Here is the input.
Amino acid sequence: MKVLVVDDDPVSRKLLRTYLEKWGYQVTQAEDGAAGWSLFQTDDFPLVIADWMMPEMDGVELVRRIRAHERPGFVYCILLTARSHKEDLVEGMDAGADDFLSKPFDRDELRVRLREGERIVTLERAAAQQGQTAGLAPAESAGGAGEIEEALSAAVDQLTDLRGQVSETASQTIDRVLEHLGQARGAAERIRRQAG
Here is the structure.
């Protein structure tokens, strides 16, 4: 699977490339957001890892452009950041980021997050292929994604209610499940928007 790495720090780019190629990914690199945006428009990158703070165009703006770009298929976007304030994370999620990784990043955490992104991209592609095989019109695909989104929202609501009634350990497990459900709900929403 192809990965676009966008980071103005050459050391981070080299480290990311080394890890990703070792894990079997095809890596393309860009030294800033503007260069990353140019590359993104010329090739199919289902996974994008971008630094938040860069000259020319920051990672948040790059993610916004990726989400606004009319292209088939889902793109899983991970922002690398030293920021950890709630308002920063909200800004990144609002722009369309799927995940965050703190700098300096941990190799094992990066691998786990990439696998999660790969699973979501693979599921989205399989769903799109099934929709085409079944002869579903885009509106029907959008309707199916809308139903999935509603079911995920209901599950999130129920787990959120349950979270306040259980032990701290169970609450932490619920938080992890909620995070994954939120990512899946975001993917369903994007599929619905693209199909509609």
